[in-house]
């Protein structure tokens, strides 16, 4: 790809009339453009924070589209009620959908308001089935495991604690397929943060 071809490709992705801005509706085309320029041997410089912003927006759009497809009626969608073996109160359903839409959440309600059921519905209904890391006091870890088995028996939970806990490849193998805890989610390597 010669330099004029790069300029033509850029004109298809960026808006020249707006100072070569990348319009939000073209965020999905940026990755292909960057790959094409890199393959051509030309240098392309982009700020990491700009690339991160585009990636976060694309992820948020994908989550919103997936939620709209899976639960078109939002909190009132019958599919949401089928995620658990227990009913959700409207505020719990709203909280779970908010967390999926946001891509992450910190649930800090008072005791007895349904944090467990919100998280379990979030994990059960999460688009793409991404694993979830739950951080809680050790005194509650067993309760979380029992509640997961009770309300969402199809989910696998792994408690990662204690001197005899697994690490490295052993943890990866033991936690394969876990939805709560498990490999990559329950392990923090020194210097990796």
Question: Number of DSSP strands?
Answer: 0
Radius of gyration: 21 Å
Tally of helical runs: 8
The total number of structural domains is 2
Largest sheet: none
Order of helices and strands: HHHHHHHH
The rounded distance between the terminal residues' Cα atoms is 39 Å
General form = elongated
Itemize the secondary structure elements and their pairings:
Elements: H1 3-13, H2 27-40, H3 48-70, H4 78-81, H5 90-102, H6 115-124, H7 138-151, H8 168-174
Please characterize this protein's 3D structure.
By secondary structure, the protein is mainly alpha-helical. The chain folds into two domains: 3-46, no CATH class; 72-174, no CATH class. The protein has helices at 3-13, 27-40, 48-70, 78-81, 90-102, 115-124, 138-151, 168-174.
Can you give me a brief rundown of this structure?
With about 190 residues, the chain is mainly alpha-helical.
Please give a handful of descriptors for the protein shown.
193 residues, mainly alpha, 2 domains, 8 helices, elongated, disordered C terminus
């Amino acid at each position: 790809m010669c330099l004029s071809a790069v300029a033509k490709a850029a004109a298809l992705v960026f808006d020249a009339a707006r100072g070569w801005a990348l319009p939000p509706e073209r965020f999905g085309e940026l990755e292909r453009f960057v790959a094409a320029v890199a393959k051509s041997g030309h240098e392309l410089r982009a700020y990491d924070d700009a690339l991160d912003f585009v990636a976060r927006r694309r992820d948020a759009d994908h989550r919103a589209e997936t939620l709209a497809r899976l639960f078109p009626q939002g909190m009132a969608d019958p599919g949401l009620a089928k995620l658990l073996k227990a009913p959700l109160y409207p505020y719990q359903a709203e909280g779970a959908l908010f967390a999926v839409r946001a891509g992450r959440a910190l649930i800090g309600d008072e005791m007895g308001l349904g944090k467990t059921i919100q998280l379990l519905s979030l994990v059960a209904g999460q688009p793409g089935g991404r694993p979830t890391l739950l951080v809680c006091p050790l005194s509650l870890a067993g309760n979380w495991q029992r509640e997961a088995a009770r309300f969402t028996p199809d989910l696998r939970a792994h408690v990662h604690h204690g001197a005899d806990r697994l690490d490295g490849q052993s943890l990866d193998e033991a936690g394969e397929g876990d939805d709560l805890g498990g490999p990559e989610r329950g392990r923090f390597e020194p210097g990796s943060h």
